[in-house]
Write a structure and sequence with these properties.
The protein has helices at residues 25-30, 47-73, 94-104, 123-132, 138-164, 170-179, 185-188, 193-208, 212-225, 228-241, 249-257, 263-276, 281-290, 297-309, 315-340, 344-357, 366-369, 374-383, 388-410. It has a domain at 46-76 and 84-293 and 375-410. Helix 4 packs across helix 5. With 416 residues, it is mainly α. The protein is globular and about 70 Å long.
Length: 416
């Protein structure tokens, strides 16, 4: 290293000005209002990413430990001497639909009402079928897909949170809040949430970095998994329109990529039309199987309230309706915060999600849908940057709910 030259005779050495320390308080308050600075994409796996992956692994161990204990402590028969099979806790409810589609297709016996499996988009069954080529056991294949996808989603969520408040540990907190949330068991089971987030969150991260082709391709993958991918596509369009950049041919080309997320849905609708003559067969299957026919929002709220507190349902189902009501209130409050802070892209995504969930015969799976509300986890992480008590309070309140819902699902009761 070259030695710097000494100062000229008669002159005092020039010293760098001392900067006053920057207080974090205003940054926390404005993190959700201001756009994060453009940044060079980080290395593929940073030390912060490794910390998130360790956290993810620990929470997976917690889920598997809960599954082991559930098999022994909550058998189907009170006087059972042998526990359920090892993987039985994860073989409930929607897993059966994904398994049937992956193994037998949508219409193994020809078009007809059947078990309404066409209500589920083909992304997860296609991935499951591909993994099954290497992993012969279907349930193990499904758990492996969710395991890998969940890791990708946790790291992507952490990176999104760090964009809002760099160097504050917001990424770790966002991942923690998601992984111990009440419905976190569905990220470990063979459900579609983990795979959707593994595509949707990197898509959002790419869009925030102005990499529109990559964002559109990833969002298209998310659309193959869940119809929520269309809501993500709408949010990407709003983000594109509200991003200040010079016009020109490059801008038009980038705008053209944004049609990609809608193509998988059109292909699936076309497939259904070819098999059933009804391009909306997926929606009609949801109406038949889950009462997702359109109702005014106030009517849906009233019906759900009646099912939750009118003593018309078994207590387990009533409790889930209560959870869905609470989740809807939380979603509306989050939407209001996003609108006040002018986070228009995230507000569009959440508004479309709440509209879809809040305009059916009754609320169903609203609580589970919170897993997909990444603005919630990012917002909580940023808000908790200077409030350690908030993180501890969240863990104390939510961890028991997460355990209870995990046991509920693993014993075959409705928890979705």
């Amino acid at each position: 290293m070259p030695i710097p030259a000494p100062p000229s005779p008669g002159r005092a050495p020039v010293r760098a000005p001392v900067r006053a320390p920057v207080r974090m308080g205003p940054a926390v308050r404005t993190a959700l209002v201001e756009e994060p600075r453009a940044a060079v994409p980080p290395p593929r796996l940073r030390p912060a990413d490794r910390e998130v992956l360790w956290l993810y692994l620990l929470t997976r161990v917690a889920v598997w430990t809960t599954a082991y204990c559930t098999r022994w402590l909550f058998p189907a028969s009170g006087d059972a001497r042998v526990p359920e099979p090892v993987l039985a806790p994860f073989e409930h409810w929607d897993w059966g639909h994904f398994l049937n589609i992956a193994r037998d297709g949508y219409f193994p016996g020809g078009p007809g009402e059947g078990d309404n499996r066409e209500a589920f988009f083909p992304g997860l069954p296609l991935v499951l079928r591909a993994v099954h080529v290497l992993v012969p056991h279907w349930t193990v294949a499904g758990l492996l897909v969710s395991l890998v996808a969940g890791a990708v989603a946790a790291v992507a969520l952490a990176r999104i949170a760090e964009l809002h408040l760099p160097g504050s540990g917001a990424g770790r907190r966002a991942a923690l809040f998601l992984l111990v949330s009440p419905c976190a068991v569905f990220l470990a089971a063979g459900y579609s949430e983990a795979l959707f987030l593994a595509l949707a969150l990197p898509a959002w991260l790419a869009a925030r970095r102005q990499r529109w082709l990559l964002a559109s391709v990833l969002a298209a993958g998310a659309t193959t998994v869940r119809v929520s991918g269309l809501f993500l596509a709408a949010a990407l369009v709003v983000l594109f329109l509200t991003t200040r950049r010079d016009g020109g041919a490059g801008r038009k080309r980038e705008a053209g990529w944004l049609v990609l997320p809608g193509l998988p849905a059109l292909l699936y609708f076309g497939y259904l039309y070819g098999r059933t003559g009804d391009p909306m067969a997926w929606k009609h299957a949801q109406e038949r199987g889950w009462y997702r026919r359109f109702r005014a929002p106030w009517e849906a709220w009233s019906q759900t309230w009646h099912e939750a507190f009118g003593h018309t349902q078994a207590t387990g189902y009533a409790a889930q309706f209560q959870a869905d009501l609470l989740a809807m209130v939380l979603g509306l409050l989050l939407l209001a915060v996003l609108v006040v802070r002018r986070r228009w892209p995230e507000a569009v995504y959440l508004a479309l999600t709440l509209w879809a969930l809040g305009t059916s015969y009754w609320y169903m799976s609203v609580a589970r849908s919170t897993l997909l509300w990444w603005p919630l986890w990012v917002g909580l992480a940023v808000w908790g940057a200077r409030r350690r008590w908030a993180v501890l309070a969240y863990l104390c309140l939510v961890a028991p709910l997460s355990t209870v819902l995990a046991i509920t699902f693993m014993t075959g009761r409705w928890a979705g």
